[in-house]
Design a protein that fits this description.
mainly beta; Lipocalin; 8-stranded antiparallel beta barrel; 9 strands
Length: 138
């Protein structure tokens, strides 16, 4: 009996591994254009950091796979720790993971992304210490 149960579990694991392959049904949102950082929330301290419309702007070039980031938050401003990357041009990729999309910038995982109308949400995906970052389409 134990052998049959082991075989059933083994077959189930093999079938489950086939279902974990890349799923083309995950919709890849159009990130083309400029997005301005609105706020960052979460973390252990449950922060809510607000940014003005032009302080941090991400401009995605989906053809080249690049994002140009304009970050004008001063280094001395305490919000700089939450404003993200400094001004510059970076490569980016979107990778599918089950029913989600992960954003990578310069091959570093940034977080799960979701676009709802004119809002880009980036969730670091860390349960207690993670942050949710909201960008608005310009």
């Amino acid at each position: 009996m134990n052998t049959i149960a082991t075989r059933v579990i083994f077959i189930f694991m093999i079938l489950a591994s086939f279902s974990c392959s890349e799923d083309d049904s995950v919709r890849v949102p159009d990130l083309t254009g400029a997005w301005t950082l609105g706020n960052v929330t979460g973390g252990i301290l449950d922060i809510n950091i607000e940014f003005t419309s032009s302080e941090v702007v991400w401009n995605f070039d989906t053809v080249k796979g690049e994002v140009f980031i304009q970050n004008s938050v001063p280094e001395t401003d305490g919000r700089m720790a939450y404003a993200g990357l400094p001004t510059g041009k970076y490569s980016y990729q979107l990778k599918k993971l089950q029913d989600n999309l992960l954003l990578y910038i310069n091959e570093t995982r940034v977080g799960f992304i979701k676009v709802e109308e004119n809002t880009l949400l980036i969730d670091t995906g860390i349960s207690l210490e993670g942050f949710l970052t909201r960008y608005r389409k310009l």
